[in-house]
Amino acid sequence: xxxxxxxxxxxxxxxxxxxxxxxxxxxxxxxxxxxxxxxxxxxxxxxxxxxxxxxxxxxxxxxxxxxxxxxxxxxxxxxxxxxxxxxxxxxxxxxxxxxxxxxxxxxxxxxxxxxxxxxxxxxxxxxxxxxxxxxxxxxxxxxxxxxxxxxxxxxxxxxxxxxxxxxxxxxxxxxxxxxxxxxxxxxxxxxxxxxxxxxxxxxxxxxxxxxxxxxxxxxxxxxxxxxxxxxxxxxxxxxxxxxxxxxxxxxxxxxxxxxxxxxxxxxxxxxxxxxxxx
Length: 278
Ligand code: ATR
Description:
Helix content is 35%, strand content 19%. α8 links the parallel β11 and β12 (236-238). By secondary structure, it is α/β, with parallel strands linked by helices. The longest helix is centred in the last third of the chain and has 16 residues, at 241-256. It is built from ten helices and twelve strands. It binds 2'-monophosphoadenosine-5'-diphosphate (ATR).
């Protein structure tokens, strides 16, 4: 029987992970099958008991990325620093947790960055779970010029937790708007721009320098109002699809030892989302 892999979370019906991973299993001649399974917090314990003996690996999405940690035997240091796990590898009945979201995001930037990421002056908008994964992954990669801005400034302070004073600066939204021209990479991690508020943007781009890379983690809508605005101001834009693909590719590599084809996955999922290159 082929090896079984899953993504678990709630809701899970619209996940594109099965399409992507099953295509990679097929293209790499690996006998594996990846499914989506609806699991809420209350079912997690029993599902973990079952998975320990029957599943080779799985991804974890909302609302389980933090909850899952208590059921794992070992957690990678970066995932510990992020405080969340999205990828689990079953090593002979021992469950090993990793977080590929932030590094996946950084790898996905290869589509648009023209210089090494350590040389970028970065603005992160938001201070939730996604911002946390990206911030700690950037720090892990040695990036030293990072500013975090958020509607609730206190949450940005909590995110940094009094550490990384040399690398991370915190700014109000209005200060970030005023000083926007000094950043070379802007990372939008909030839910602003998703349905039903597709016309909202998290901050004004009036002071944006042309050729700045503006990236939004959202991929539905495929091009948010924020990205449309940035594009009109001659920025280089990228949506959240590369991050989604690379976090999956890194998980696939953990399970199989093979880094799969991300370009073909982009074409496949772009078609599925009905998008145009972004
Ligand atoms: P995720 O795990 O997807 O990052 P989250 O942890 O709920 O989600 O974080 C949501 C982020 O979006 C936060 O930075 C939040 O800002 P606050 O800390 O001020 O709540 C931001 N966010 C959500 N709705 C927002 C809105 N309408 N305007 C501005 N920021 C918003």
